[in-house]
């Protein structure tokens, strides 16, 4: 794994820890396997994010409670760790999933 990807994976892990230790627990409340969210990183972070999410990312999102995940879009921690919320909320549409109003 290259250094940039390792840094992004660590950043996502930190975000997950922050969410898990907060009032709401994203992993349980949003029905998402936090480890599988790492596959979404190339599409939501970095200077040149991938245009489309990976198949593994879409698979994870298909099982997740998308309105719940999108409710984290205004968390200041996302930007702090290099996650681009505007790109993250577009993932459901790019995965050809119904886009909840919380992601609009």
Automatic annotation (TrEMBL):
Pfam families: LTP_2. InterPro entries: Bifun_inhib/LTP/seed_sf, Bifunc_inhib/LTP/seed_store, DIR1-like, NsLTP-like. One of its GO terms (molecular function) is fatty acid binding. It comes from the Eukaryota. The keyword NADP does not apply. Residues 1-26 form the signal peptide. Residues 30-103 form the Bifunctional inhibitor/plant lipid transfer protein/seed storage helical domain. Coiled coil: none annotated. CDD domains: nsLTP_like. Transmembrane segments: none annotated. GO terms for biological process: systemic acquired resistance. The keyword DNA damage does not apply. Keywords: Signal. This is Bifunctional inhibitor/plant lipid transfer protein/seed storage helical domain-containing protein.
């Amino acid at each position: 794994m290259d250094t940039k990807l390792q840094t992004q994976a660590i950043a996502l892990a930190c975000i997950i820890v922050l969410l898990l230790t907060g009032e709401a627990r994203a992993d349980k409340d949003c029905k998402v396997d936090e480890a599988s969210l790492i596959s979404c990183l190339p599409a939501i972070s970095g200077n040149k994010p991938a245009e489309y999410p990976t198949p593994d990312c879409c698979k994870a999102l298909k099982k997740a409670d998308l309105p719940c995940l999108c409710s984290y879009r205004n968390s200041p921690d996302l930007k702090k760790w290099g996650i681009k919320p505007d790109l993250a909320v577009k993932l459901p549409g790019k995965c050809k999933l119904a886009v909840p109003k919380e992601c609009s």
